[in-house]
Design brief:
Order of helices and strands: EEEHEEHHEEEEE
Oligomer: single chain
Distance between the termini: 27 Å
Shape: elongated
Radius of gyration: 17 Å
Structural class: mainly beta
Number of helices: 3
Number of strands: 10
Largest sheet: 7 strands, antiparallel
Length: 154
């Protein structure tokens, strides 16, 4: 994972001491939130695994997913109107859950915000405005380890 750092960009972010991630403010990309239980590309949903046979499983899954940083979910690929996913909190709605031989599977809807970044000029007073976005994601959790894999659905 790349570290956010001080950068000199063009346009709105020129000569600004804003943490940048490939020219985009780190807060937009989601790297500055520090939320989520993941190491590298591995996401662990241990609480969901433990609550799977309880009546609280959907609430626990929703909570665990909403604590992750936006960059942990395949939201960037799901953008329909924007070009970058913001770091604003996203909302998860559990659509379906099922148990399989090797683990657990859930289909969730994610409501998040995207922006069109990089098109503002330095003297443009127009603020960055977010667009509502939606994605459906399949979450598969391995029974033995709690490691979760996420796949964007059509």
């Amino acid at each position: 994972m790349h570290e956010a750092g001080i950068g000199i960009g063009i346009g709105l972010f020129a000569l600004s001491p804003v943490p940048l991630y490939f020219g985009v403010p780190a807060a937009i990309v989601g790297h500055s939130t520090g939320r989520g239980e993941h190491s590298g590309d591995m996401i662990h949903l241990i609480e969901t695994l433990g609550a799977w046979h309880s009546s609280e499983r959907e609430a626990v899954l929703k909570g665990e997913l909403e604590r992750l940083a936006a960059a942990c979910l395949p939201l960037q690929q799901a953008l329909a109107r924007g070009s970058h996913v913001t770091a604003e909190p996203f909302r998860v709605m559990v659509l379906a859950t099922e148990e399989e031989d090797d683990g657990l599977r859930a289909r969730v809807g994610v409501f998040f915000t995207g922006i069109i970044g990089g098109c503002q000029c330095a003297d443009d007073p127009t603020p960055l405005e977010g667009f509502p976005e939606y994605a459906e994601i399949e979450v598969t959790i391995q029974r033995e380890t709690g490691v979760a894999k996420m796949r964007l659905l059509d």
